[in-house]
Amino acid sequence: MELVARSERLSLVAPSMEHLDALCAMWSDAETMRYVGKGLAWTREEVAARIERAMKSHAERGMAFWTIVRNGDGVVLGQGGVVPIEFDGPEIELGYRLGRAHWGRGYATEAAGLTRDHAFGALGVGRLVAVTYPENVASRRVLAKVGFRETGESDKYYGVHAITFEMTPADLPERAGVAGA
Ligand SMILES: CC(C)(COP(=O)(O)OP(=O)(O)OC[C@H]1O[C@@H](n2cnc3c(N)ncnc32)[C@H](O)[C@@H]1OP(=O)(O)O)[C@@H](O)C(=O)NCCC(=O)NCCS
User: Residue 163: CB within 6 Å of ligand 1?
Assistant: First the structure.
């Protein structure tokens, strides 16, 4: 397992087919996927294709939707990271998704904070964007907690109506550098 970054309770590790079974169990759940992509659960083939893409992106650019694993017992919690996107111009998007069993414990905030610190630090990213469905109140809260600013609404990302967010190192919260701050 190749470590990308580590915080108190969790680690981001390089994407791998070893995580396929755990991720399939999570992303085949309609409730979990309600606010991800087009809002539909993914088949095993779709999950595998995305892991494949993440492996390639990680190898080529050092950016990807990495696997989030819990420190200590190695349980797969979900996926999160940063990916280059191009809708009207190149941007770096931060995102995360957790299996339903792991919601409500601050893991998304911790993973987003860790990803943010890794992006602005080791990866030298100057600006991050994020998008959520308007109804995804928990995710909007996570983004606000790690320092993102809401910038408006847009239909340009992924063909869905979304709230848009952005963040630069100047927006870092007071406890910058502390993942999960
Ligand atoms: C959205 C998601 C990432 C949140 O993960 P999580 O680990 O439960 O989030 P955290 O515990 O770090 O923080 C959630 C925050 O939202 C709040 N929250 C959760 N559900 C809420 C709701 N229905 N209404 C208002 N606030 C809510 C929590 O109280 C918490 O804020 P607080 O710390 O100020 O109390 C997780 O539910 C998930 O993976 N969902 C499915 C995939 C997804 O939607 N991904 C994001 C796509 S943009």
Answer: no
